Amino acid sequence: MSRIGKRPVAIPSGVTAQIEGNELSVKGPKGTLAMGLSDLVTYNVEDGAIAVTPANDTKAARSHWGMQRTLVSNLVEGVTQGYTKVLEITGVGYRANAQGKRLKLQLGYSHDVDLEVPEGLEVKTPDQTTVEISGIDKQAVGQFAAEVRRWRKPEPYKGKGIKYRGEYIFRKEGKKK
Fold it and tell me: What pTM was estimated for this model as a whole?
């Protein structure tokens, strides 16, 4: 039994959810999100909540149950609060600058890295070493943050690179003389 799957997803006021065909759409103050529905799980919108239950008693249906409930919960949270990932840049001469729908990174390469910000995301740089990525789709925010971080992952000797806020970088000692 899925402990997460048993709990219905509460729909706050100002948010509407409806099932049309093979798609669940959730509309809220920040926008609209939709996801395709799995055949292994049944979805019911009733009494201000979305209930997710396995369609049958197979192992595959039970294994999809909790994940599908979490995906529905992410839709509801995205349209009400949104998601934000904060990246911190450490290193001499490393900096970032958001220019409209482009993010310009200077990471010690011979050239600047210009990244196009995907549709539906907003990127801010409060200072040169901080990048804030926000949007309503949790997967898109995390994916773009991972793509930015990929350009210069934190290294274990000096800690230089791009890391998530709150991430701990295990530092190695280095060679002894």
Answer: 0.89
